[in-house]
Amino acid sequence: MARYTTSSMRALGLDVGQKTIGVAISDELGLAAHPVETIQRQGTDHDVATVIALLASREASAVVAGIPYELSGREGHRAKRVRVYLDALRLALPAGVELHEEDERFTTAAAQRVLLSGDVSRARRKEVIDKQAAAVILQGWLDRRRRSE
Predict the structure, then answer these.
(1) Contact at 8 Å (CB) between 16 and 51?
(2) What is the distance between the alpha carbons of residues 33 and 77, in angstroms, rounded to a whole number?
(3) Global pTM?
(4) DSSP structure string for 34-96
(5) Do residues 14 and 39 lie in contact, with contact meaning Cβ atoms separated by under 8 Å?
(6) 101-135 pLDDT, tens per residue?
(7) What backbone torsions phi and psi does residue 89 show, to the nearest 5 degrees?
(8) Domain range holding 118?
(9) pLDDT one-digit tens code per residue, 11-37
(10) Nearest 5°: phi and psi at 62?
């Protein structure tokens, strides 16, 4: 079983969609986010258990999940669906693991730009866009956290 310590700087980033969950992880210093995998959704309980297992295997002490606000800043139906998942995840998190929410407006577009600049093929972009979006969400949170320290 993995130990969760407050000195650990690793965070897991999530881009929660209807069909998939993109996952990213920060480095040990909490400076950079890296895409990890895309989880195919199989129901809330299974999806929560999968993320809890990733937290343990990656020894992460925080989860940063994107909330898909509307352009107006309001929470629409997509954000409400994500909150259902996050409420279940919050109940299952081990002691000492924090859940942070991050505005994910425009993250998919930013992830697309990263992949296009890397000359990633259209087919490959479709495969990796969710985990790249999770990395964009997590990187935004890491950068803001570092600036506020």
Answers:
(1) no
(2) 28
(3) 0.84
(4) EEEEEEEP--HHHHHHHHHHHHHHHT-SEEEEEE---TTS---HHHHHHHHHHHHHHHHPPTT
(5) no
(6) 999 876 666 666 766 676 666 666 566 678 989 99
(7) -65, -45
(8) 11-148
(9) 999 999 999 999 999 999 989 999 999
(10) -150, 150
Residue 97 — φ and ψ, nearest 5°? -95, 125
d(CA 50, CA 84): 16
Q: Are 52 and 4 in contact (CB under 8 A)?
A: no
Report yes or no on 47 lying in a domain: yes
How far is C-alpha 16 from the chain's CA centre? 7
Structural domain tally of the chain? 1
Residues of the chain above pLDDT 70, percent: 79
Write the CATH number for 117.
3.30.420.140
pLDDT at 78 over 70: yes
Can you tell me the mean pLDDT for 66-86? 91
CB 15 within 8 A of CB 64: no
